[in-house]
Amino acid sequence: MRALATDALGQAARQWEQTRQPARVFVEFLYETVSGSWSRPRRVVTKAEHLDGKENPRYVVTSLPADAWPAQNLYEELYCARGDLENRIQEQFALFADRVSAASLRANQLRLYLSALAYVLVCGLRRLGLKATELATAQAATIRLRLFKIGALVPVTVRRVWISLPRSYPWPELFA
Fold first, then answer.
1. Do 91 and 57 have their domain in common?
2. pLDDT per position in the chain (176 positions), as tens?
3. 23: domain range?
4. Are both 103 and 55 inside the same structural domain?
């Protein structure tokens, strides 16, 4: 496959040499396996990218038609969105979705439900409460470590709940 994308990789390298900025060139072609394991030739979309003096090619094999999904749209809107979704699933594992080791199915299901609910709440906090902060694009695990998983004194009175952070807490402005 790489031999079929050589021209596009060279074009991206020349663009990078001129601008010293990341360069992307999209190309597509039909590809057939040498071993004959595919029943027919397949459409391959290639992102020929050049970053910091290095090649970064990516290949997507698809059966989607070119008229409905041009090469760049297929890669950026469909393929990258799928990868982003996988990142969100991995993010949920940081909120205990990976610990389903109880003996009963119901206990494991409840743990997954609670983890999903915690993830939705953290995403809402990130989208609304942390919009203009350094954590606006942070992962759920980072938000959990910096804002939730901290040692604090929580005195409760009849009228108020106080949160006293330690002096060594590094993000008091962010917490406020």
1. no
2. 788 888 999 999 999 999 999 999 999 999 988 887 888 899 999 999 999 889 999 999 999 999 999 999 999 998 888 887 787 777 777 776 677 778 888 988 888 888 888 888 998 999 999 998 999 988 888 898 888 888 889 999 999 999 898 889 888 888 88
3. 2-63
4. no
The number of domains in the chain is 2
Residue labelled with tokens 């406020």: 176
In a domain, 74, yes or no: no
Residues 13 and 52 both lie in one domain: yes
- Same domain, yes or no: 92 and 140: yes
Q: What is the DSSP string of 6-59?
A: HHHHHHHHHHHHHHSS-EEEEEEEEE--SS--SSS-EEEEEEEEEETTEE--EE
37 in a structural domain: yes
Radius of gyration, CA atoms only, the chain: 24
Phi/psi of residue 86, each to 5°? Answer: -60, -35
**Exposure pattern of 77-111 as b/e (b: 16+ CB <10 Å)?**
eebeeeeeeeeeeebbebbebeeeeeeeeeeeeeb
Q: Give the pair of three-digit tokens for residue 96.
A: 């205990």
Structure token pair of residue 176 = 């406020």
Say yes or no: 103 and 144 in one domain.
yes
**Tokens at residue 171, please?**
């993000």
